[in-house]
Amino acid sequence: MMSRVFRLLPVAALAALLPGAPASQAAESGSGLYIGGSSAFGAGATPPPGFYATVGAIAYDGDVDRVVADGVVDLNVRKTVFAALGNALYVSPYGLFGGNASISATLPFANHTALEASASGAVTGNLSTSGWGVGDISLKIQNGWSHGSFAHTVSLTTWLPTGTYATGFQPNAGKNHVGFDASWAFTKVWKESGIELSSAIGYTIELENPSTNYRNGDTFHLEAALGYQFAPGWTAGVAGYGITQVTGDSGSGATLGDFKRRTYAVGPAFGYSTRIGGKGVSFSGRHFREFGVENSFQGHVTFMSGTMRF
Hints:
Blueprint: H1 2-7, E1 50-69, E2 72-91, E3 100-121, E4 125-133, E5 138-147, E6 150-159, E7 179-190, E8 195-206, E9 219-231, E10 234-245, E11 262-276, E12 279-294, E13 298-309
Antiparallel strand pairs: 1-2, 1-13, 2-3, 3-4, 3-5, 5-6, 6-7, 7-8, 8-9, 9-10, 10-11, 11-12, 12-13
């Protein structure tokens, strides 16, 4: 069980990475603060007490029919993103109700976004922009419990508007507003068969962007992963997620109304754990294809990460 927990730890570090495009008809950046696929294998497992460091990356390529920014209607927008992150995690030997408490911080320190679009309205023609920036810092507190082959956690994540941001058609790495996510996750392992089932459920609230007076609606997210340990240290399987906006966009900047977004995705996932130089090291990766999308970017997203325990 310990090897599975440690190998799959990087999943929790990927929650605040994809930068946004300009304001869209579903959310101000065409996506919210919570990134689907952030939880997969080991979603409900808490690693042994200690310090952990993670480095990871996300690549995204998608498009949307319509985006609006500063009075300009941008049509057929394509967004490609590469985001690199660092995460620091401390797991305490103590916690609430017999569990283990932990705290972590994630910084997307290198984010490259490229946007292409055609425009109509106040401005017409083809638009393109690209650039690097620093993303929003996220802080997460969590308490987890382990009961043999079953483990579960409760957590609260807070995003702070520390990322690179400007109004208009810009390759923003930050969202320029605060957000919160509360979630519960579990992991069940059948040791005899080597099968693992993990899932996470959560609710995200985003506050108003003070620069645009736009507030994204609340969203509900559900993620799941089913895997098989086919060799020592190796697990492979399938993962998926769904994100549904349950309240409308609001604020004086939401000139298109209370559009609600929806995204589903599925794809392969893997995890691997080993020891390097006497230290435990884990790697994970997954690739999702989005489908059934409404009022949001639709495309492909890939997560890769590695973690070391100190």
